[in-house]
């Protein structure tokens, strides 16, 4: 097996820098659009054969060093009692958002059995990968899940989310605790099914101040990482806009910290210390630029990452829908070429 | 006149910390909604009597230490040749967005005479204020203006904006240079009309990496501040999500740097040094929380600001539409009470 990604997660030397991209299976690929023309996102997620098929699409096309199971971060909200749909062009919608103490009390803390289709997809994808590259599992982090559950969808200012947080802290902590327990069980089940690393996506946590992060989020994220500490796989902790949260996120846990393009990698490495690996951080919009510009930026990132072991090349957020496929290809190949020892 | 705000901008001691709020004249006030029920945003902006009236509304109601002229950051785009409207619930729309070299070449660099209605509003507002508090003028910064001009409205990922920046840097710099010259003339005309301080809003610049900021934005912002350096008024330089841009923004210019809630004020003061004042940084969503929670957070901010001269209390971004008026009142009074020497 190509061990580059797992070695880099463990801060062991590799022949070149490993690379994978968040949302590497997605709308920018014709193969993916062909599947989605016949099936909704939720159908693909809940049909292990389709989820595994889509997971492999970018691996068959690019020299990526890891696969990530195709799923959606919001899936665990369904067995908790929330009604989730994806509206064309609008993204996810939660039809019965969580707003009150009673809403939070009514949420079920499932054991993860309702999400067994994700485990099945992982098992199928592992078999199909046949050792080519490791397979990453993932889940949304409690804050990011809470923001969707409370707002009922994506948000700009997180007024309802912070409203609950600031106005009813006990209810907020109860919600976060339920989410943390669900996420822990879900990630454990993914590892049991064959995930060789897991990533916790706290995509929207960057809307918080450092004080708020430590008070309202960090204890719950810590619970997840403590619950996973006996699992023998790398644990990636990712967020965007986290420039003032980095140290607190590291304290919360994770053996790899993912950062976006707002935090230069030399600064990230310096602030995070030498006992975690770092993942990032190309702006996904750069993949729309001419290849010579992509090359210049890959070079800069590799330089800022500094050459020591413990670095995984990724984007700072997921690949955007209209990204040119040949630019994704170019970026992957450039990472390998420019970092080869 | 209440000199607290101007003194704090000059880092002189004051009896208590001055406070004003971005978008303090806005939809959360019944008086404002009454005017807007009869007039569009652009009508209010372009009718000096109405703009001055709305500017005074929060001053008549709260113990604020500064007024800010009612206007919109996108107004200077109109005389450049862009067609601007505000769609109900959608925000601003530019109907002929700038995408190509030819589009950029066609943009007029006006001398600001088409925007004389803003100067007239400033003169009227100064007269109506009658020395109660100073009046702040403002403009959008080149990056933030460019993002609207290129995207045609608000944006999530700035794909077109960064697309031009990364793909056609010469065209980008030409656009930014035109915007910087327009903004400089516009701010000069506001100062001439009576603005006693001006704020440059680079609201969306936090979507950039520090390298991109320095390469594609900083030279143009510097041009503006250099153009204003002989004007004898405080120059406030504001952005959101700027945790990794602070030092570069200070280098670009400004005698006061505005930060949002993601950057703790003690960190901002330490990183910015003692030769600029700092403005910020309450999360506007906190104004939806119970008053005891607002009090706790005002107290924390005052503590983090450290008590030395050169601090202006503000939000980290504009007041949100449904903010309870009595909470705005409470926040203003708490800042004065808790910081009184």
Layout: helices, strands, pairs:
The structure is a homodimer of 341-residue chains.
Chain A: H1 4-9, H2 30-38, H3 41-46, H4 48-61, E1 67-68, H5 77-80, E2 84-87, E3 91-94, H6 101-106, H7 116-129, E4 135-140, H8 142-151, H9 159-167, H10 169-193, E5 197-202, H11 210-227, E6 235-239, H12 246-252, E7 256-258, H13 265-272, E8 277-282, H14 291-305, E9 311-315, H15 325-339
Parallel strand pairs in A: 1-4, 4-5, 5-6, 6-7, 7-8, 8-9
Antiparallel strand pairs in A: 2-3
Helix pairs in contact in A: 4-7, 7-10, 8-10, 9-10, 10-11, 11-12, 13-14, 14-15
What characteristics describe this protein?
homodimer; 341 residues; alpha/beta; TIM Barrel; 9 strands
Describe it.
The structure is a homodimer of 341-residue chains. By secondary structure, the first copy, chain A, is α/β, with parallel strands linked by helices. Chain A has one domain: TIM Barrel (Alpha-Beta Barrel), CATH 3.20.20. Chain A contains 15 helices and nine strands. The first copy, chain A, has helices at residues 4-9, 30-38, 41-46, 48-61, 77-80, 101-106, 116-129, 142-151, 159-167, 169-193, 210-227, 246-252, 265-272, 291-305, 325-339, and strands at residues 67-68, 84-87, 91-94, 135-140, 197-202, 235-239, 256-258, 277-282, 311-315. In chain A, the strands form two sheets. In chain A, strands 1-4-5-6-7-8-9 form a seven-stranded parallel beta sheet. In chain A, strand 7, helix 13 (265-272) and strand 8 (277-282) form a beta-alpha-beta unit. In chain A, helix 8 crosses helix 10. In chain A, 54% of the residues are buried. The mean pLDDT of chain A is 97. The interface between A and B is medium-sized, with 32 and 32 residues.
